[in-house]
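ok so I'm stuck.
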Amino acid sequence: MNIFAIFLGSVFFFWGLVNGYKLSRSLKWFSEQEKNDPLDTQFIAKFIVLIPLLEEQSILHSLLHALQNIEYPPEDYRIVFITTAKERRKMGLQTTEEILQTILPKDFSYIHLHYPRKVGIKSDQLNWALHILDAEGVITSDTIIGVYDADSEIVPKILKTVASKFANQNLNVAQQPTLYLKNWNQIPVLGKGFALLQTLYACGYEIQMWHHADALFPPMRYCVGHGLFVRYNFLKRIGYFPSPIEDTRLGHVCSFLKEPIEIVPIFDSCEVASTAFDRIRQSSVWFSGEVKFICAYSIAAKIKKQNFLFSSWLIFYKSWRTLVWMLKGLFLAGSFIYCLITLNLLFLLIIPCFYLIPLLILIKYKKIIRAIAQNLPPISIGVILLMPIEYILMSFGPWFAVYRYAKSFFFSKDFEYFKTNRY
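replied:
not stuck anymore, here's the structure
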């Protein structure tokens, strides 16, 4: 019996048990919140919901349809679409700005702003729009700023639910967790594997990350840039959305400031990129945001004196998580190759436990949590068998980011933050 193969099999089986335990705790807690979380219907918050747009022509109509179904007093919210001059006309097709001008209702609830610069990214669009709205008196200090992407699943009761959270005047940040399943029927088998892996991670790790922020040694948290809600006076206090990668770094700042991030008990559901290369590029952008956690310390230190031990723990934790992200795909690939070369077929079958155990738990909760039931279709054997390949491919993302950082440093080139091609 090969001792090293036994060790590898044990590592992956234990990995699956830990992931499964975290996922089970998260979904059990979430299902209880979904059932029992009362809406404070007496509290009416003012909302500005920002939706930055770039090359979103194909889904503008469905986005607008979802927004028109929002159940909230019309005088208490504004939907702000932010198109950008960065978008170029392609083969005579209309731009997002041109389509939006023709279909946007003449309604005071909707505002269209056009970011005038041909350079800049999502955070630049958001911050520019906030400055415009502030100057025009549309925003007050207690206004809740929401952010969605064009592909987000915006449910009718979302503003009511978020308002009930912000009835707590000490709360500054709230976040919806995400299911990456919205375009399941349009993506290939490997893409479905990515959608499942991201959903398992979002439900298993991210919900726990936000939920246990008050632990003695908490994880460094990050935010997700859709289904995100921030009180405006807090956003101004930290200097608006950090740029680039505004969502991840906002969560880092909250971690150093010990600012809670409340979980909104409604899942957002978004799309994933259809090609492996686009998913690798997307992963590289996520990674580039995660490695900027020291910048978040600098922002937080200007606002509040930092506890040395607490800050050191957060920096150590994020450094470790970043290293694991870079190496775990290589570890998985190496383990598969080793078991194949040594013909340890039994342990080759044990290795997929790291995602099979959590996947079974996700399927179990399909019967309990409404959003999972609506978004998670039957999963084919092919998708399940190819998930490790997709996992390895996605692990190229951090290394691709490192390569691009090196290229920008040595050749004085700008680091590009890619637009994700989903459709």
